[in-house]
Amino acid sequence: MALSKIIDLGGPRRLHVHENNEIIITDICSKKCVFFTGPRWKRFVGMMADIDEHVQLVSAGVGTQYMQPIGGTLFVSVNKTFPTVDIRCWYSKTSIGLSLKPTAVGIALTYPN
Q1: Which of 3, 54, 57, 85 can bridge 62 by disulfide, Cβ–Cβ 3.0-4.6 Å?
Q2: How many other C-beta atoms lie within 10 A of the C-beta of residue 99?
Q3: Which domain holds residue 19?
Q4: How far apart are CA 112 and CA 70, in angstroms?
Q5: Hey, which residues does 101 pair with through a beta bridge?
Q6: Which residues, including other chains, have CB under 8 Å from residue 36's CB and lie 6 or more apart?
């Protein structure tokens, strides 16, 4: 059994760090979660400055669109429409072309406006 460390992110959100370097962010109320492998977590942490910059822009009322792949079908996004940092799996509708569509798999992290 892998040991894990649980970190309270405030509110109903918890970050679970497993012994095998897998990371899971969970919202205990909605049961939504997002799973990171070690390399995806490293990529996500490396994006934190850019994510924070776009959150600040949205909080100031500036329209911005930030969407970056973390790995596989997992993307992180920030936009003015939804005041969240959204970490979600996306899929491509091949019959329509290369347009990406969000799935229900993921989590939206709110931030104070």
Answers
A1: 57
A2: 10
A3: 4-110
A4: 24
A5: 91
A6: 22, 23, 24, 25, 44, 70, 74
* pLDDT one-digit tens code per residue, 63-101: 888 999 999 899 999 988 888 899 999 887 766 666 788
d(CA 25, CA 20): 15
Q: How far apart are CA 60 and CA 54, in angstroms?
A: 10
Query: And the tokens for 46?
Result: 């490396």
- Look up residue 29 and give its two tokens: 């109320």
Please report the beta strands in the chain, taking only residues with DSSP state E, as ranges in sequence order.
4-10, 13-18, 23-27, 33-36, 65-71, 74-79, 84-92, 100-110
Q: Are strands 33-36 and 65-71 parallel, antiparallel or unpaired?
A: unpaired
Q: Which pair of tokens denotes residue 18?
A: 């497993």
Sole residue written with tokens 């490396």:
46
Regarding pTM above 0.85, the answer is no
Total Cβ atoms within 10 A of residue 76: 24
